[in-house]
Amino acid sequence: MSLRGPLDRTTQAMLLRQLYLAYFETRRFERAAEVAEQILALGVLSDVAHQDAARAKQALGDIEGAVGHLRLAARTGPASRRAFHWWTLGSVYHLARRYDEAIGALTRAARWGTRDKPLYQGHLAVVQCESGKAVEGLGALIDRLSEVPAGQGYGRFVLGQMAYFDQRWDEAKKYLEAFVQRSTSGRAAVAIALGAEIEAARRTLASLAER
To answer: 54, 6, 16, 5: which is closest to 33 by C-alpha?
Structure first.
């Protein structure tokens, strides 16, 4: 259909996001980052565009660039998505092994979280364990997360890592295998975005196989 007038900014942003996803799925991360910046210039869906830009920057190895965009997402996004943005920031810090900063961001995510609070609390516990801190009540956190929708998808990664630190080996194996299977059998964008987590899960599985 021909258009009788110019596209509104929201429609432009949505079309550009499809272009972003196409670039991201073909690992053209610099182009994906450029498109995310174009979306930001439109002034709509800004926190989503910051998330997209951060994902591309992270894939390029530009951690500080990713962090900057995620902090802006948390600052400018609606309250309903603030916890998600802090959690994503915490995840970036976690994967970079910047544990103190990860703990700070995930603590904020857990504070703001509602429906997905058990995921944020669980992820915070994983980072604390990896950083050498003692965490009490891991079993309760595992049980709580396993009973809510947030325990699916990415939640299986968090559940597997918590189970590993709680020495629940069979559960850790079950959750991590399910996470890897689900993350690598769907859209390419998911496997690419979760590449570091997939590798971390595989390392933990390899450690379990040696027991």
So the answer is: 54
